[in-house]
Amino acid sequence: MKKRVNDSFDRRIPPTPGTPKDVTFPDYFEHRLSNGLKVIVHAQRALPIVSMNLVARGGTVYDGETPGLAAMTAELMIKGTADRSSSEIAEEIESLGGSIASGANWDSCSVGITILSKHSQRAFDVLSDVMRASVFPEEEIERVREQRLADILQDKSSPGALAWRRFCSAVFGRHPYGQPPDGTEQTVAALTRTQVRDFHASRFVPENVFLLVVGDADPADIVTMAERVLGDWQTSKAVDGFIPMPETAARRVQVVDRPNAVQTSVLVGHIGLSRNSDDYIPVFLMNTLFGGYFGSRLNLNLRETRGYTYGAHSRFDARRQPGPFAAGAEVRSETTDHAIEEVLAEMHRMREDLVSAEELDKVKRYVTGSFPLLIETPAQVAQRIISIELYGLEKTYYNHFNSTVLSLTSDDIRGAAQRYLHPDSATIIAAGRGSMLRDRLERFGTVEVFDSDGRLIPNVSFLTQDT
Amino acid sequence: MDDINISFREFNLSNGLHVILHQDGTLPVTAINLWYHVGSKNEHEGESGFAHLFEHMMFQGSENVAANMHFHHVQSAGGTLNASTSFDRTNYYETLPSHQLELGLWLESDRMSSLAVTEQTLETQRNVVIEERRSRYDNQPYGTMLIELFAKAYKLQPYRWPTIGSITDIRSATLNRVQAFHRMYYRPENASLCLAGDIDLDRASDLVERYFGDIRNDESEIYRPFVHEPPQTTQVRDYVYDSIPLPGLLVGMHIPDVNSKDFLPLEVLSQILTSGDSSRLYKSFVYEARIAQSVLSYAYDLELPGLFLFRIIAQQGKTPDMLEAMLWKELDAVRRNGVTEKELDKARNRLEAGFVHGITSLQSRADMLNSFHTLSREAARINTHLSRLRAVTREDIQRVAAMYLTEHNATCLHYLPYPKQSSENL
Given this model, what pLDDT does residue A141 score? Predict the structure, then answer.
């Protein structure tokens, strides 16, 4: 039934857009303190809130033989200093309405406070204290250890976490990227206070750290404050360096058995590229079209055409060294093998056929048009600045982003796919009902089945049978 | 802290569509946010999940927009979009470059006017929604906790079935019901449209009139169940087994609706109990006694009486009984002695900062304006919310704790790992 009375215009035709306006990445303030520590301020003063972060270059990738070390060190930074106990730190910041958080990822460790800007000074004192004077009390280490062991246990019941962990292990082997960032039961249980202190001392040194302040802040005030509190801080050099990548492996087909699963978590992929690669933007655009947004080939195929899944995605996780490329979905169990076939077929299609001008134009308009939404809030701008700093990108990088995207051709997209999508050697991981998956996945290669503890199950005939 | 001041213009079209316009030209971007006052609460028994399945169908075509072209148009214009359904409302939103505002209005007005869905698109979306339910609930550890709790806590109110619905009910949804649902609920007088961002207020008003002004309302009476549970006099308890590694405790107590004078004190109390590492229950459960891995509480802000929720996951080797004993001891202390001025002050500060942080993006600001309008009939609360929070006293908090956070008013679920079976031990 039609609910409209009459139309004064033709509704069949989409309206003509107005004239687009330019968007530029904000020019932010940079300054180096006398001891080499870099200060960056992006002032955006619409709301009375500020976020202050101390970021150290290098993170989980330097875990060495102790997966979980960076993550645990970062968490423990805010659990006690010479002057403040763990509870006092939380109480002081939370009383002012703020929040304090610390963490590690592959290429950095950081600690940050978000707070109403009128409390900046006090918050900054706490922030500096936890960076310079963390004492890592044994009692706090035990608490965090216990929590982390419970988290690791929890992950073993999460299908997505199980599939991801198996995928990284299969693709990267002994490289740190193949190890779990939160560690294993063994490494977390064995980790010592000395290791934590040494790791902290190796990362948090003035030349390796930058202070990033975004939101309601005045750059001159921040510099004065930083020079006063951090100016006298001197320590040794940070460890740097790359860790040799594994050779690109041949395809592996692995199943993680979850006997009660009502879906399969599927991942297909291999080693991708590094963040500072010249190919990053072509690969980003190619991947967006392939599986990086709702209108992507992968999602339209697996969700909108076939109804196998609530959503299918792919992503290049570009780090300082080439990180993983993975395409995946949580699919109805019976469709697992069909879904994998479709993913591989879509990868082949990206490599073989030129994308049409229309499809290319659509994805370009999506990527360039939604760019402002990546720099809308102070926290988002902070994320982009951190990428610039950690990966040595030009300060004007994000101002060239859209024009680079617009300059790419169908040949560029196919070239990027040919260099960075490898369906024939892609590893295939499926977490779900092992007995069914073993049979359905055989056509992709020899199937190895693991339990949720990561142990290879030698004789698959013991697997639970479906009823 | 000073009150925040979000300026906006607000009016109704002659067909009853509510319009809220907020101008902020920091970036050349406009958020379009459209609320329909319908959620799973409006479903009838046996059609659970319909409001949410219907939300999926709103992307499957209308008179002038073919199936899936909604996504195509918005994303090709550089926009992002989504929609969500909850107990009381359904929202649809796009964020577009500001020169594409008209495109968004064209799309939203077209699907408010008509739906052009087919048996085939319905069948695909039934399957997608069933996989959504599995991905988010059935196949996730602890994923069904809230579904179980609401089912046990309510006997009458339509919050007793989940927004996602049961798989049986989702499978039985028909095309006729889709069209009837559209006629009844997706009418201008049951909707509120907020535009926030780089707009000219007068031009935006004209455009809204142009695209939405001639949409008629259906004459049927909107079905709005107004059912209240009888007061609960004895505790409800149950055990649930799931594929989980650590046991958990889930407790829900009946509380009044979001517009009741008791609601904000409950929200502040929830903040005091579990927000941050210095909160009461984090300190007692996680930091000191070390019997819990996590502790969370939440006061559900709903149109009909909601629940005050506790969700506590045990540390290894600890049991739901231990968690429950400590919870009652802590709540007893609040009921007897109330909270300290310092705790109250901290909670206010954190709620303030959280509120300010929560309206940083244009889309979140638009959503907040629509939320206050739709659920409290007052968009201007966006500017008075903080002073209302500030007015909550220690006496209010002790009173609501004594009134609602009681043992007889509670539904307690103990979540337990499946007993080990030989077939699982490979």
Answer: 98
On the question of pLDDT at A150 being above 70, the answer is: yes
Check whether A459 has a pLDDT greater than 80: no
Within this chain, domains B9-212 and B236-424 share the same CATH topology: yes
> Between B130, B134, B276, which is nearest A99 by CB?
B276
Minimal C-alpha gap between A327 and chain B (Å): 16
H or E segment at A230?
Answer: helix A219-230
Chain-chain contact of B99 with A116 (C-beta, under 8 angstroms): no
Among B245, B342, B356, beta carbon nearest to A154: B245
Confirm if B98 and B41 have CB atoms less than 8 A apart.
no
* Confidence band for A235, pLDDT divided at 50, 70 and 90: confident
Distance CA B42, CA B395 (A): 36
Locate the DSSP E strands across A258-301. Answer: 263-271
Range B314-335 average pLDDT: 97
Q: Distance (Å) from the C-alpha of residue A284 to the closest C-alpha of chain B?
A: 16
Q: pTM for the complete prediction?
A: 0.93
Going from the C-alpha of B403 to that of each of A360, B299, B343, B398, the distances in angstroms are 61, 14, 20, 9
Global ipTM: 0.89
pLDDT in tens, A366-381: 999 999 999 998 999 9
Give the number of A-B residue pairs with CB atoms closer than 8 Å. Answer: 255
pLDDT for A179-207, tens place per residue? Answer: 999 999 999 999 999 999 999 999 998 88
What CATH class is the domain B9-212?
Answer: alpha beta
What is the Cα–Cα distance from A328 to A64, expressed in whole angstroms? 29
The matching CATH number, chosen from 3.40.50.200, 3.40.50.720, 3.30.830.10, 3.40.30.10, for B236-424 is: 3.30.830.10
Q: Do A262 and B210 touch (CB under 8 A)?
A: no
CA A454 to chain B, closest CA, distance in angstroms equals: 13
Chain B residues whose CB is inside 8 A of the A335 CB are none
Parse chain B into domains and list their residue ranges.
Answer: 9-212, 236-424
Does the domain made of A29-230 have the CATH classification 1.10.10.10? Answer: no
Cβ(A432)–Cβ(A264) below 8 Å: yes
Which residues in chain A are contacts of B276 at CB distance < 8 A? Answer: 90, 94, 99
CB < 8 Å to A12, chain B: 64
* Nearest residue of B to residue A4, measured between CA atoms: B215
Per-domain residue ranges of chain A: 29-230, 253-462
pLDDT for position A8:
74
Beta strand pairing call for B191-197 and B29-36 = antiparallel
Domain A253-462: top CATH class: alpha beta
Matching fold, domains A29-230 and A253-462 = yes
Looking at the DSSP assignment, which residues form a beta bridge with residue B11?
B19
Quote the CA–CA distance of A289 and A278 in Å, as a whole number: 19
Share of chain B above pLDDT 70, in %: 98
